[in-house]
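Why should sequence recovery work at all? Because a backbone constrains its sequence more than one might expect. Tight turns favour small or flexible residues, buried strands favour hydrophobic ones, and helices have their own preferences. The token representation captures these environments compactly. In the example below, the structure is given first.
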């Protein structure tokens, strides 16, 4: 920075030169710019990887689901075939049950990719929530019976109709109720209560299972995440950590 120097009469007699070394500042600015660029590239790379993962899951789910359909059809027909012996029909029932479970896991993967891409549409209309809950209980009843778990169902509301997607509502309650059945020990107890609170129908499902720690409550709603009690005994409980994530989303 150069400034003129004047004498007492105001006549310029020279110049003052002040120099400041800004090397470190420029180097810091350059490093900051390079760091921001690296972060941007890393973020773009992570987003691209996420998109690739979602596309892969969608493709994989579809490819896995397709060959199950004819097998499920054959097993279902054989399970109802009166010409076959009871023992053979029982074997086909086992096959059908396990294929349905496998198909449900694949459908969960498909639902996650639909949710991520914003392609999960809801067919909303006025539906009977009590009927939906009763259907859900019937679907989970084989697991409850196998573990000798009684389920107390109390629909304590004068209103039973709500506006929603009956298929997706049943999916939500199926996921929550099946979790209760999965993590409740034999001869435990499950309670489902529906009541009207502040003009809204609230459904509460309570069980005597292993429970969820306070630090796990938010984490269990993340895709592919399970509570510590589930992870420590993953082989015993099974599942891939999608049910509650889908239920919330």
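From this structural description, the recovered sequence reads:
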């Amino acid at each position: 920075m150069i400034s003129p120097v004047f004498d007492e009469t105001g006549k310029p007699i020279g110049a003052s030169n002040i120099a400041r070394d800004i090397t470190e500042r420029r180097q810091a600015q350059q490093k900051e710019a390079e760091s921001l660029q690296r972060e941007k590239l890393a973020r773009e790379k992570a987003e691209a990887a996420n998109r690739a993962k979602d596309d892969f899951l969608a493709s994989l789910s579809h490819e896995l689901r397709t060959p199950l359909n004819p097998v499920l059809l054959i097993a279902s027909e054989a399970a109802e075939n009166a010409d076959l012996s009871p023992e053979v029909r029982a074997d086909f029932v086992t096959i059908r049950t396990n294929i349905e479970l496998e198909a449900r896991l694949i459908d969960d993967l498909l639902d996650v990719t639909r949710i991520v891409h914003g392609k999960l549409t809801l067919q909303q209309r006025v539906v009977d929530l009590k009927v939906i809950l009763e259907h859900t209980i019937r679907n989970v009843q084989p697991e409850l019976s196998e573990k000798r778990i009684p389920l107390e169902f109390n629909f304590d509301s004068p209103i039973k109709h709500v506006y929603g997607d009956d298929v997706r509502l049943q999916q939500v309650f199926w996921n929550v109720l099946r979790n209760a059945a999965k993590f409740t020990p034999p001869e435990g107890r499950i309670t489902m209560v529906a009541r009207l609170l502040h003009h809204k129908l609230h459904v509460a499902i309570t069980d005597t299972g292993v429970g969820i720690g306070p630090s796990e409550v938010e984490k269990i709603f993340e895709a592919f995440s399970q509570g510590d009690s589930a992870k420590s005994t993953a082989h015993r409980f099974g599942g891939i950590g999608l049910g509650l994530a889908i239920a919330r989303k």
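A few observations help interpret the result. The chain has two domains: 26-116, 125-248.
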